[in-house]
Structure formats: C-alpha cells, structure tokens
Amino acid sequence: MATRCWRRWHWSAWPRTRPPPAGSTPSFLRQFSTQEQTPQICVVGSGPAGFYTTQYLLKHHPQAHVDLYEKQLVPFGLVRFGVAPDHPEVKSYGAEDHQALGIPGEELPGVLSARAFVGWYNGLPENRELAPDLSCDTAVILGQGNVALDVARILMTPPEHLEKTDITEAALGALRQSRVKTVWIVGRRGPLQVAFTIKELREMIQLPGTRPIVDSADFLGLQDRIKEASRPRKRLTELLLQTATEKPEVKEAARWASPPRAWGLRFFRSPQQVLPSPDGERVAGIRLAVTRLEGVGEAARAVPTGDIEDLPCGLVLSSVGYKSCPIDTSVPFDPKLGVIPNVEGRVVDVSGLYCSGWVKRGPTGVIATTMTDSFLTGQTLLQDLKAGLLPSGPRPGYAAIQALLSRRGIQPTSFSDWEKLDAEEVSRGQAAGKPREKLLDPQEMLRLLGR
Ligand code: NAP
Q1: C-alpha angle 294/297/300, rounded to 5°?
Q2: CB of residue 93 inside a 6 A radius of ligand 1
Q3: Counting C-beta atoms within 10 Å of the first and last residue's C-beta, which end of the chain has fewer, N or C?
C-alpha cells in the first residue's frame, strides 16, 4: 500500500459493523486540505461519481493529490455491481439502499428489492446468499423504470444468452432452473408516464421466445396527448401502442398463442398489500389499487378509484427507485429527498465538502448524467480553491486515515491488490468464455491476497 501517492488510489475495506464515528467535523475534512500548492483531496466512494470527480480534479489541477476510498474490497461501485451483465456498454447507476414500498406484507419471503436482486446476479458480496426462489410461474415487478426492465429481461432471457456475460455462475445456475414464465411490470400511472427508455423497451420486445403483452385499452383517449408529448416520449409511447395493437404475422401466430414466456405491462395499478400464502409462509400475490390520473403529462398524479385487483404471483420484486443513505451524522442529509443538501455540489454549511452523483441530485440518470454532474462538482471545487474559499493549513492526509484504520484493526486493500483480484477473476472467467468470473466472498479475496 502506497501511503502518499499522487494520482494513485487507496481502497479501504470499511466493514459495515464499524461505521465511521459520529463527530462534529467529518473526519475526512480534518485530514484533508485543499489550500496548499498540492491540494489534498479525499473522494469517498469509487463508483462512477467518485471516479469522474477524481478524473476531473486530476486533469484540471496537475498538482492535486486525490485519495479515493471504497468500503468494498474491490472498486467501481455500481459499475461492477449495478448494471445488468448483458449491458456491459452501459455500466452505470448506484445508491446504497432501495425505496421501501411501505405496504403490509412487504417483509414476506418471496418479496425482494430489485436492488438486492441486481446485486445478487452481479456478485455484490452482501447479496450473494439471496437465493431468490424462481420456482413459481409468475413474477411481479413493481415500478416501470429501467431497473424494472433490467430485472425483467434477466428473468426472461434464455440463460444461454447470458453465458458469455460476467453474470455470476450461481445466478446463471438459478436462472437455468427458473420456472418463471410470466413477468408483470406494474405501474401506478399510465403509458405516458413510464420511466423506462425506448432502447430498453425495444430489447424487451425483441426477446427471443417471449411475447410482450400490452393492452390497447390503456391507450384510449391518448392520441392527442401523444402528439403533444416531447419527441422521446412520443416515440416511446408510439412503440408501446404499436406493441399493443400489432397482430403477429401468420408464422408467429402459433408461437404467440402459447409462448414459452411472456411479459406484460400493467398500468394504473398501485401496490396496496402483499398477499400471503394460506400458511402465511410466503408471498402468493399482490393486491393492487386501481388508479386514475389527476392532471396530465409527467406531473399527473395517480389517485385510487376505490377498485382493487389481486394478481397471483410467487415472486414480487420492488423496483420503485433507489435511495442514498447518510454517510455520517456530521454530514448534512435530507432523508426525504435522499440527498446531501448542496448548491452545485457545494455541501450546504460545510466548507470544503462537496458531493457528486446520486447523493447530490437523487437516484435518476444514466452514467453520462453522472459524468457531467461529477465534472461540475470538480469544477466547483477547483473554482473555490482558486478563490481561497477552502480550509487551509497542513493536514496529515492518508497518514491519519492509515493510523485510524490500524487502530480499528482494519487492513486496507489497495489498487495493486485489486489488480491481483482482477487478474484472478479474468483467468477464472476464461475457462467459461466469460469476461470474468467475479469473486463473491471477501474472505476468499483476502486469502488470495495472502492476508
Ligand atoms: P426510476 O426510473 O425512478 O423508476 C421508478 C419507478 O417506480 C417509476 O415507474 C415510478 O413511478 C415507480 N414508483 C416509485 N414509487 C412508487 C410507489 N410508491 N408505488 C408504485 N410505483 C412507484 O428508477 P429506477 O428504475 O430505479 O432507475 C434509476 C435510474 O437509473 C433511472 O434514471 C434509470 O433510467 C437509470 N437506469 C438506467 C439504465 C440504463 O441506462 N439501461 C438501467 C437501469 C437504470 P412514478 O413515475 O409514478 O413515480
């Protein structure tokens, strides 16, 4: 492990059982200073936001010294653990937690957060024991965003199409045994309010051996609204409508009549209760409140009509958005919005502290959004540095963090450690023709590093 390094990164394993201590000043601010000729900057989190912020700082301040910290044993955050394995070109999005549904029965076995499910097939150590039960016929995904489509696609894709991705072997094995034939993707609003994008929808429509189910009745009266919508929204809705109304060609008709798998969109349905099996041991269905829209366009609100509908299923995946978590009691946090209050990345009321990514603006946007936003935070920081607005005085930097880790008995791993683990993963993947076989067990990773 290099100590004072320039343009190199430190990876630190911060076990969940030992959260950073609460204190009046964030510990990283006590150790890092940005006023010297060689500003010392600490970036917490090595996902896309952390890396892009670091990249901007190093590129635009050649003397900057950036220490990049990560609680996992391996870097890249949700680039590694969040993006669907069959989307290697996207590799984006992240936050620490998922939004709870807040409905009765949410804790029943068979109800999972999409975040945990995504973590499971992507090899996130904390989700490696998830063991989702895929022995049921029907799964319901709540929410109509891109994460919902990612999860539906992984459930519906013939497993042989995933074999050459970096999906974990355990997840691939479970998907091979899966009996899930139908996936319902449920939204509380209508076709004009879906949160997913056209590319992801098109992929779903084209899934081999899988029939899309969209009800044309959901589009009644929408023609004028579609015309008024923005171009991307218009194209997306037209594709949905085309899917709802298109008749299969003759040669496809037989397959459509009894497809091996099907997925469908249910609109105007808000989750009300997870229904238990007769023995109360697991999920047997979901009760949905039928809704109608108040208002128009993106801002329209779903209000219950008073009708309800029960949808039988053996698996419920809640995909209603991600949520950032507070990092330390001394760092301001808005629990309602799930963000650190900030102005252009400057954390409100804490000089010298900045934020990027989903904790800055909320859990929306793809990797390009995070890149732009992280560059802006880097720019703000360097402007403040130039204007003399940052804390000054000598700070020990990584030396102090190293001493702290040592006092807590934590052995940090470094970038060169990651390179060793990376080589091991790549070599294990080669045998199966995969880009890598991810290591899932932190203890095994430490053993491989000779710890
Ligand atoms: P999202 O895009 O915010 O979608 C969340 C969905 O959950 C919406 O349909 C929302 O409906 C619904 N929802 C929220 N609260 C609900 C509630 N209480 N009850 C019922 N439904 C509720 O979130 P996401 O899918 O987690 O994606 C997060 C971000 O990552 C997005 O910006 C997404 O585009 C991005 N992402 C991109 C890719 C990619 O590029 N391939 C892949 C994955 C994720 P309302 O609209 O009615 O609130």
Answers
A1: 25
A2: yes
A3: C
The alpha-carbon radius of gyration of the chain (Å, integer) is: 24
Residue 251 tokens read as 């040669």
* β-strand partners of 264: 184, 213
Contact 343, 351 (CB under 8 A): no
- Ligand 1 proximity of 370 Cβ (cutoff 6 Å): no
**Contact between residue 445 and residue 411 where contact means Cβ atoms under 8 Å apart:** no
Mutation choice for ligand 1 from 320, 358, 372, CB with most ligand atoms inside 8 A: 320
Helix (H) or strand (E) holding 368: helix 367-386
**Is residue 178 within 8 Å of residue 155, measured between CB atoms?**
yes
Mutate which of 81, 93, 97 for ligand 1? The one with the most ligand atoms within 8 Å of its CB, which is 93
For residue 114, give the ligand 1 atom closest to its CA: 26
- Contact status, residue 321 vs residue 95, Cβ threshold 8 Å: no
Give per-residue pLDDT as tens, 205-225. 999 889 999 999 999 989 888
pTM: 0.87
